[in-house]
Amino acid sequence: MLFTRAALLTAVIAPSLIALPESAGAAATVPPAEVITEDPFTNDPDLTHQLASALREAEARALNNPAAYAQPYVDQAGTVHVPVADPAAQAEAGQAIPVPPAGQAPDDGTDDMSAVPPPDTTDKDIAPPATPPQSASAPLPPKDPKRSAITGPMEWIDPATRVVPYSWHRLEEIADEVLTLTPDVLPDADKVQSSTIDPETNRVVVETTAATDALRNALAVRYGTGAVALLVIPDLGLPDATGRQNDTSSGGGFYGGARIVTNVGNCTSGFSWRVGSAQEQAVGRSRQPARSR
């Protein structure tokens, strides 16, 4: 799962969205946000190590300039896409991406003896680690810290690129802000459950328990019709109070954790939590963990 960029996104992309108020006339002319009936991440394919490596490299390239790039993804056919919001970045986005050769397992660094700490010399019974043999005719290539997963010969993948309306930065702003709005600002905002970016359609998917006309129109006016789509999910409501000795997960969550009985009192091995469709994570498009209220 390629979700290791959350911390970097927080540092690079600041949620500083300021939306200007729209007039009533503008609201009447903007088509409402689309309602979709299927989670766009349901059928994402698993990635080969080559595609996974290419996607990581593409994301790193995009994160260097998230205001010009959109979020990269891999489609059902196995094509790596690096879309851009700024046409000036399209030439750079389309540059070939280095990947390990097909059939070569990714290097996880375990054969790099430089990462092994020195032995404790105070204990004479501990022998130093053996140095792996190296052929004089074929020395190991030096490690590149920027491409630690790629060693030895490389192959190249040519990504597809196109110009899209919204940058990665802009969609991150929308996905963050939509969860902070209250019903007095965004009608039916209390029905919004989570948000995440769908890079293939270049928009934010907002999960809601009801796609009302008021909510659809308000989202379209605030962000643009094409920037947001609504996915209706069941309203699971709040969990009922149940005994900790019972697992009521059939309703969508594990409400109490397992009870622990000791000679000094009782406790629990966990805390209440619930999993909805917002937390299902797909592989092919490197879906960001969904934000939720």
What does this protein structure show overall?
With 293 residues, this protein is of the alpha+beta class. The protein has a domain at 6-15 and 32-98 and 160-235 and 281-292. It is built from six helices and 13 strands. The strands form five sheets. Strands 1-8-7-6-13 form a five-stranded mixed sheet. Strands 2-3 form a two-stranded antiparallel ribbon. The longest helix is centred in the first third of the chain and has 15 residues, at 49-63. The model is unreliable at 1-27, 135-150 and 273-286 (pLDDT under 50).
Strand content: 15-25%
Order of helices and strands: HHEHEEHEEHEEHEEEEEE
Spatial gap, N to C terminus: 23 Å
Could you tell me the mean pLDDT?
74
Tally of extended strands?
Answer: 13
- Rg from alpha-carbon coordinates: 24 Å
Sequence of strands across the biggest β-sheet? 1-8-7-6-13
Biggest sheet overview? 5 strands, mixed
**Rough outline:** flat
Count of individual helical segments: 6
Low-confidence stretches: 1-27, 135-150, 273-286
Global structural class: alpha+beta
Helical amount: 10-25%
